[in-house]
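Predict fold of Diacylglycerol O-acyltransferase; 460 aa.
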Amino acid sequence: MNVRPSDSDLLAPLDLAFWNIESREHPMHLGALGIFAAGSPAAGRHAADLLAARAAGVPGLRMRIRDVWQPLGLRQGFDLRRPLAFGGAAREPAPDFEPLDHVRLHAPAADFHAAAGALMQRPLERGRPPWEAHVVPGVDGTSFAVLFKFHHALADGLRALALAAAVLDPMDMPAPRPRPAEPERGLLAGLVPDVTKLPGLVRGALTDVGRALDIGASVARATWDVRSSAALVSQPTGTRRVAGVAVELDEIHTIRKSVGGTVNDVLIAVVAGALRRWLDERGDGSEGVSPRALIPVSRRRPRTAHPQGNRLSGYLIRLPVDDPDPLARLATVRTAMNHNKDAGPNRGAGAVALLADHVPAIGHRLGMPVVGQAARLLFDILVTSVPLPSLGMTLGGCPLTEVYPLAPLARGQALAVAVSTFRGRVHYGLVADAEAVPDLDLLAKSLTVEVAELNAACVS
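Predicted 3D structure, encoded as tokens:
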């Protein structure tokens, strides 16, 4: 199969990995649940009509993912670090794109998070552009929710935000800077090396080999002395449950100013404390538990890089769930995060996703289903931060009041946590295997209690 370079874009290595890891019991889409204040009971239906009409004009929403068989080096130049390989995939415009297939209006619901859980467990259709928008009116007519779903191979958190914002009401934003023009390249430009660049490419290849060995050794060490909880482990069932909670950002800043560190340190420590409370209350117990949390770090490619797409690293830390002192838990998280930052995002077990760049496309196709099953050997829970603009956003004139980011659930894991700050509040979005975690609402409440406990500890 061939794809014309003018209308297609090869998937970046990590996007290709996300595409090939997926199965029906293990969907790889991320999401965002937005809640809007409604002026009338008809606002939800109007919002669905607007989303469908606007989606047709957003090029990124017309892109489907199709298997291709061509050398990966053909369009990105000769690179000693990436041999020619076959079995990739590319984004290309869908010839039969129909927005109404992707925007759906549902019956009114009393619990938006419960509705989102049922919708998040449905895999996206792989033959069509891999995204959906679900509009759920509130039963009281004063609000409605929109659940956006994007396959991780189509968009990471930042790109998903840009695609969602493109179908909301227009905002006055500064014009983007023009992308530099790329020089014309001949037919053989991707196959014949530029000899002036060979020394640098060789040095880069050797550096990459050393980095890969360092990451591999760190991954091996990360599996030693694992002290997790059975509550965080799940056999993939394909079921999903969603919960969310919002806390005041001022409270987080008060804690940070009192003990130092960063806002992110506090948000991670809150997760550790909430897990402790949740495990104790459900009877599993927190004694001796220090699960490994993966904290993703975006390593976005330059605008001129080919292929575009996800490039993630991460920090791996042990959450001090077994420590009864909230301030001591925060100090432990702060120390661990500082250690990771000093080492940098290109080192350590959390950087394992960077190794996707060095796997040929056919390796992703054949090996990723097996690799996906090993995720829980590396980490026990995902805790990711998704940046949001502080600007107010509206849909059909209805203001967006809450945004809960929803992360994909790794195979074999029961729980993923995503965090966003929006208009003075911190929104925790929780996604869990519905069969393994029937009491997800209890964990959500524990997050609120933990913030209050940390505040009390700071002033005492």
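The radius of gyration is 22 Å.
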